[in-house]
Each structure stands twice: as structure tokens, then as C-alpha cells.
Amino acid sequence: MAEILEKNKMVMKYYVGEATGDNEEKYELSIGIGNSAPIIKLPSGETVMFNWDELINLAINEKKRPTKDSSPSQSQNNKNS
């Protein structure tokens, strides 16, 4: 599970870049040194560390989810093509 780090917890990390959210909020993107865990500093100042297994499982589950574009009628049309 993702871990919200305590405010004063020291983590050695390598800065990767910055992302901008829908409301123009900034997210600092890093990876942990040693374990290469993805780390995101939220606009609120909280820092969240993920593990790779969790992200892989989220990606697999996201791929399995039906998309807005894949309605049953469209799937049927694709089979007839």
C-alpha cells in the first residue's frame, strides 16, 4: 500500500520532475535512492511513497476496466468487421 510519510521523516530521493494537476496544482516527482520507489510530494506538502508491485497491480486493473468508448454495441460492431 502507498505510505504517507511522516512530516519529519528523512528519505533520500532523486528528483525526477514536476507534474501539474487539473487545477494547476504542482506535484513533485521523485524516486527513492536504493529502492527506486516512486515518491510524490502533494500540493498540501504531504509526501506519498509507493511500491512498484502496487503500481503494477493498479495498471493491470486499470487495463481491465471498460472504457467509456467500449459500449456493448461498439463491441458487437467490432466483431462484425
The total of helices stands at 2
Overall average residue pLDDT: 85
Number of strands: 5
Percent strand equals 25-35%
Q: Please give the largest β-sheet.
A: 5 strands, antiparallel
Unreliably modeled segments: 73-81
Termini gap: 43 Å
Helical content band? 25-40%
Strand order, sheet with most strands: 1-5-4-3-2
CA gyration radius, whole angstroms: 18 Å
What does the secondary structure layout of this molecule look like, with pairings?
Blueprint: E1 3-4, E2 13-20, E3 26-32, E4 38-41, E5 47-49, H1 52-64, H2 72-80
Antiparallel strand pairs: 1-5, 2-3, 3-4, 4-5
Structure write-up:
By secondary structure, the protein is α+β, with helices and mostly antiparallel strands. It has one domain (9-65). Helices cover 27% and strands 30% of the residues. The protein has two helices and five strands, in the order E-E-E-E-E-H-H. It has helices at 52-64, 72-80, and strands at 3-4, 13-20, 26-32, 38-41, 47-49. It has a five-stranded antiparallel sheet, with no helix packed on it. The protein is globular. Mean pLDDT is 85; it is low at 73-81.
